[in-house]
Specification:
- The complex is a heterotrimer.
- Chain A contains eight helices and no strands.
- In chain A, helix 2 packs across helix 3 and helix 3 crosses helix 6.
- Chain A is extended, with a radius of gyration of 21 Å.
- The N and C termini of chain A lie far apart (about 70 Å).
- By secondary structure, chain B is mostly helical.
- Chain B has one domain.
- In chain B, helix 2 crosses helix 5 and helix 5 crosses helix 6.
- In chain B, about 55% of the residues are buried.
- Chain C is an alpha/beta fold.
- Chain C has two domains: about 160 residues, 3-Layer(aba) Sandwich (Peroxisomal Thiolase, Chain A, domain 1); about 150 residues, Stage V sporulation protein AD (Peroxisomal Thiolase, Chain A, domain 1), CATH 3.40.47.
- Chains in contact: A-B, A-C, B-C.
- The interface between A and B is large, with 79 and 82 residues.
Amino acid sequence: MKFNRKEYQALYQKASPSSPSLRNVPAAFVTGGVICALGQALKTVFLAAGLEDQAAGTAVSCALIFLGVALTAARLFEKLAKWAGAGTLVPITGFANAIAAPAMEFKTEGFVLGTCVKMFSIAGPVLTFGISASVIYGVLFWLLGGAA
Amino acid sequence: MIYLKAFLAGGLICALSQILIDRTRLTPARILSAYVVLGVALTGLGVWEPVVRFAGCGATVPLMGFGYAMAQGVKSAVAESGLLGAFTGGLTATAGGVAAAVLFSLLAAVFFSAGDRS
Amino acid sequence: MRRKGDTVFFDEPVWVESCAAVGGKKEGEGPLGARFDETGPDNRFGQKTWEKAEKRMIELTCTHALSKADVLPTAVSCALGGDLLNQCISSAFAIRGLGVPYLGLYGACSTMAEGLLLGAALIAGGFANRTLCLASSHFCSAERQYRYPLEYGGQRPPCAQWTATACGAVLLRREKAKVAVTAATPGRIYDPGVTDSANMGAAMAQSAYETLRIYFRDSSTAPADYDLILTGDLASVGHGLVRQLFAADGTPLGENYQDCGMLLYGPEQDVHAGASGCGCSAAVLCGSVLPDLAAGRLKTVLFCGTGALMSPTSANQGESIPGICHLVRLEGGK
């Protein structure tokens, strides 16, 4: 019997199990929440150490990035992320893992052509879009008289 | 209490993202890129600032916070040095995080290797 | 040798002289683990990179196959094989050390069936006396090439398949032995328009169905005539789809229809839909099916290697996934 593409699509989508969101979503909620609360605790510490608000925010980012890279280096991040999904991906820890994982992985192809070239293979778009969006926003802000 | 608020807001953002991943199969690189742009846009529209005031790190630790920091940096840089600030503000505000990610990752690559997964 | 439709019938059969299968750690822990000639304590096989590990695994498999047949590499007319890596480096680098004539193949996960088909045809056509057919895949080398770095934290959707770390090799010869290759159908490419590269079973199911249908027509046989119809590697999603496609024709497949992707790992091994990778069907064939044929536990088997002929480039360009399926008929106890 011949199925056209549309019929086949209906057939295989029905046959393909969907992601277990009932398990994934609570896991993402808890992990993401814990990472953010940890960030908040770190911020309290940095503020108490005398950092200004903005500097404390940067210090929190650096600390969480260190945590993300350290977990990646210890080969634990992948195991945690398999359970936590977006809970580890969306916080800044996910950004750290996105750079550390290819950096470690491709060192077999050399530090320059492997590690350094590939380390931005996942995070590159994030930086490109972020920088571009911020410049566009800055130009708009300037045009609308924000400098005044 | 700010810790609880950070937990709830951060958890909610991650939970919504998980639904997005499960439903759409968007790749992580796309989701993260979208969040950074979203962070810049929401900050520009004045929406994210109140969220940050309410939830603290619950709004700044997710990648929208990266966009938020860039937009904030651009805003003050433009106010200080005009159009040039549009180009320097975003990266200056996030330089710490980017430099940390690059350096720590380089060190990780020097001292550690990717393991087996089975 | 006789052709009917797309199918070649080897009236003078080509014989399986020996076969060998080597697997990684996870494969060794699976239900077929005990039947492999060797399994690695880890997946490194003592090597520094995953590509070298895969090459070493292929070398070990060839060594086992040759020593079981008690022949030297110089007795091999030609080796035919491939893997999943760009430019099939692990096979080429492994065969480099053997010093035998080599024809590199790329058929994605259909490579083992493609190799058997060609290896048998070369012998039947008088171009070779003994051919070494092999296929391999390695989870880690495939993952870093096709998907993400190994330490990258991502989740796999439930329809995704796990690339097997395994290799299978078969020595074919002209002189009679226990198991014969008696027919083969080279597959046509079918593309049902699946674009989700995490759902390759769905992309390949149609080609498995079409090749089987063509073969049944060419051979005037029916599914019930075989002890085992084995596709590989559609895993649970694709396996179910092939069943549905045959059921829609009014000729439902029975219990004799199985898939390599569902045999390599146990349900507790967390591989989602099942196994994939050229090494999966190769290792299931060489570790379990061919020995069963030789021992008389199976009489007639249709081995249908299925491949998804896509690459990260084609996927990024939004192309759908073309599927292919090559069929080889194997008979024991002749």
